[in-house]
Amino acid sequence: MVELSGQRNAHKGVLIVHFGAQYCQLIARRVRELSVFSEICTPDQASKALASGRYGAIILSGGPRSVYEADAPRLDAGVLDFGLPLLGICYGMQWATKALGGEVVRAQDNAGREYGSATLEVGDDAGPLFSGVPTKSQVWMSHGDEVRSLPRGFRRVASTSSCREAAAWDPERRIALLQFHPEVAHTLEGEVLLRNFVFEVAGLAADWNPGSIIDETIAALRAQIGDEGEVVLGLSGGVDSSVAALLIHRAIGARLHCVFVDNGLLRHGERQAVEALFGRNFAMNLEVVDASEQFLADLRGVTEPETKRKRIGHRFVEVFREAAKKHAHARFLGQGTLYPDVIESVAAHGGATSTIKSHHNVGGLPKDLDMELVEPLRTLFKDEVRAIGRSMGLPPEVIDRQPFPGPGLGVRILGEVTKEACFVLRQADHIFTTEVEAAGLEKRLWQYFAVLLPVRSVGVMGDGRTYEQPIVLRVVESNDAMTADWSYLPEGLLRRVSQRIINEVEGVNRVVLDITSKPPGTIEWE
Which residue among 24, 41, 90, 422 is the active-site one? Predict the structure, then answer.
């Protein structure tokens, strides 16, 4: 893995201590939206990270535990000795309160418990954090514990009807504490609060931009790969692998060997489009490997989603290993892993988060992998990757291409994956995507694709009974894939798509619409 953090000495960032909040990464995203670098670490990594001198402020995340529990997340109180501005959110507020001599208790008789929206009342002398915030504002609460007494040096600056100490401020130590969550959209002034903390309280500079990301990433890549190392990278043609390839190529040039794997699980015309695009625009070494028969053989009889993902991931690595044998110094495997991939696959930062699903480029790699991973995008969100791609000259057809999972149609065909099922889904998906794009709706959508279900239903076609499979249409809007809302397409478009799929795709007699947001669902079905 590329340790980008070790190269960030040109500017100060924000270190976010992960106490187990499922959406801790939203804090990181909100800070980066302010053009300030942020990085997440576990509590036991915080002191070492701060000692590097790379950070100018600390944010303590929320979490599901109580600070007085024996197995609650622990942070060395020595982090407070660095003298950096600090923002404690929910559990982070409670930890700081306890560490500094205040008192945290379980809310009694539900009086102090709050879950959902609450009205915050801000005092007259609330300090720089609340500059520009109205005296009354909607915030989002999620806590069963409360601060009974603040540590010495703090003053209460805001309350709700159920939470006396909803916000506190210590001007001497520049420590701000919030019982509510400024990172979520339900806190209406959350962006203002975070902006005030980063710039007014911490005095950081807005110097995190595509140019700085590119320069630092290239330097980190050169340091990791060395002067002779060679990298084999799986190039899918999507924005993630394409940007990863451009960064690595700029770092080491012809020592990058791109491999496009036809796994038999691709969308309509995908192989031809990638060959044409990278042959036309970029002077990269590109090898096309048709391994479709091996992938489909690996998936024969397999229905469990995690098993499918792992088998697909294992086969990818085997193909790359074979490709690497052609190059004497190719001991590195390049991947376009993104931060949301890491979050969904593992409790990546040691918090009490739960694994949602493995990704072929995170949780599906074999333990005996004899290649070192090179992952230049591992700490980045999708919008940051797109911004980098634009600045590096990637064409719109790559930058604006909707995400496609590494396992491809393998996780959009529920149940056993067969050549015949791929053929059916590929046709249906092509009809759907081309109709959406013909209607000019693709720019406002994050993803729009078809799913094939392993069930059959009765229908009537040509006065005859049918007993065939349904196609599910999945359409979502999102900024970063961490959360997503389903999107309802125009009725005429949906009617046209349904008619075309049923008329043109043999084996399908029903089309249904998925209207599930994320959470509780995921964007992909498997």
Answer: 90
Q: Is 41 a catalytic residue?
A: no
Give the model confidence (pLDDT) of 496-517 as tens digits.
999 999 999 999 999 999 999 9
Best CA proximity match to 101, nearest among 58, 171, 149? 149
By CB atoms closer than 10 A (0-12, 13-18, 19+), residue 106 is exposed
- Going by DSSP bridges, is the β-strand pair 330-334/230-234 parallel, antiparallel, or unpaired? parallel
Of the residues 39, 114, 165, 183, only one is catalytic, namely 183
Q: Is the pLDDT assigned to residue 354 strictly greater than 60?
A: no
The single residue of 143, 181, 257, 359 carrying the catalytic annotation is 181
Question: What is the pTM for the complete model shown?
Answer: 0.72
Helix (H) or strand (E) holding 98: helix 91-99
Let me know how many helices (H) and strands (E) the chain has, helices first: 14, 21
What's the mean pLDDT in 390-413? 89
DSSP letter assigned to residue 251: H
Residues 6+ apart with CB under 8 A from 146: 104, 105, 106, 107, 112, 113, 163, 164, 165, 179
Torsion sign over Cα 38, 43, 45, 49: positive
Q: Give the Cα separation of 157 and 171 in Å (integer).
A: 12
**Residue 183 is a catalytic residue:** yes
| 3-class DSSP assignment, residue 116 | strand
Q: What six digits make up the tokens of 293?
A: 């028969």
Q: What is the dihedral of CA 371, 376, 382, 388, to 10 degrees?
A: -140
359 catalytically annotated? no
To which residue do tokens 């700490």 refer? 379
